[in-house]
Specification:
The protein is an alpha+beta fold. The chain is 20% helix and 22% strand. A hairpin with a 2-residue loop joins strand 9 and strand 10.
Length: 303
């Protein structure tokens, strides 16, 4: 069978190599037939650790029968007529060889370096020293508790239906929920429906629905991440009912948002004879420049 494995015209041979001391060592290695036995031993030394002078080689056929002993280092390997599939057995004759004792295969036989805990503690640059520089993490259940009213004051001015921007990313949306959330950490939360799918859910968090919105448009964020840009329509109507027009404008107007004229014109509401004083006199921020003027001149109704 070995002769059938031999490649015609090939000047090399592929043999399996075994070792007397290393039972798990069994690679297949290709050798040139022109290599001397000494050169073969040099190649094997680099792979198994047995020195050339302490190495004896035996050739076996594919059924385990011993063919010959490669005793002459000067002869070429081809002299012993090895074939593909044969076995080249390495015998280590050195009792103090690195391959003896079995420790190359069984690491439990290797003497381990040990150091006392006290001596290790005095060393610098160790992993223990590195761990000591890390922030101390409290055991589970002993973390500092967040107050139930956490950020309650921050969200006092945030109302449902307010238009807002959420950090990070200046994501714009509408406030749909303000309050405490039983499925989230203690404190106050703000539920926002984004204009674009920049959220994480549809208003349901951990099985609890806080508001309704399209998928991936909703998010629950802390109040300090929310910047109100435009008062909600609910707040506008409530204020229209309860407050005089001049107080309404001063209380609900947000700098940079010209929405008052839109609301008044939509409601076909045009106050008469209402004079607005300058911001310096009224303490408000309605008109830039602080000039006097009739609201009828500044807010027009349709038609």
């Amino acid at each position: 069978m070995g002769s059938r494995l031999q490649i015609e015209g090939d000047e090399s041979v592929l043999v399996r190599v075994t070792h007397s001391n290393i039972k798990s060592f069994s690679p297949e290695i290709r050798f040139s037939l022109q290599m001397t036995v000494e050169a073969v031993k040099e190649k094997l030394w680099k792979k198994c650790g047995t020195s050339v002078n302490s190495m004896s080689l035996e050739l076996y056929d594919e059924i385990g029968a011993k063919i010959s002993v490669l005793s002459d280092n000067a002869r070429p390997l081809g002299f012993y007529s090895p074939l593909d599939g044969y076995c080249l057995h390495v015998i280590d004759l050195d009792p103090s060889s690195v391959t003896s004792g079995g420790w190359l295969e069984d690491t439990s036989l290797v003497d381990k370096y040990t150091i006392s805990d006290e001596a290790y503690g005095k060393l610098g640059g160790t992993f223990r020293k590195f761990k000591e520089t890390l922030p101390l993490k409290q055991p589970p259940g002993q973390e500092s508790k967040i107050s139930d009213n956490y950020m309650g004051e921050v969200c006092a001015d945030i109302k449902i239906w307010d238009r807002c921007e959420v950090e990070p990313g200046e994501r714009r949306g509408t406030v749909k929920f303000v309050g405490q959330a039983e499925t989230l950490a203690p404190g106050f939360w703000v539920g926002v429906q984004f204009d674009e799918p920049a959220g994480k859910h549809d208003g349901m968090v951990k099985g609890k629905r806080y508001f309704d919105c399209p998928p991936l448009h909703g998010a629950m964020v802390r109040p300090d991440k929310v910047k109100v840009c435009l008062r909600g329509i609910v707040v506008i109507f409530q204020s229209l009912i309860n407050l005089p027009v001049n107080v309404l404008i001063k209380e609900l107007y947000l700098p940079g948002q010209e929405w008052v004229a839109l609301v008044v014109s939509t409601l076909h509401f045009q106050p008469r004879g209402c004079e607005f004083e300058s911001p310096q006199e009224q303490g408000g921020e309605f008109l830039e420049g602080g000039s006097r003027g009739s609201i009828g001149n500044r807010l027009s109704t349709p038609g």
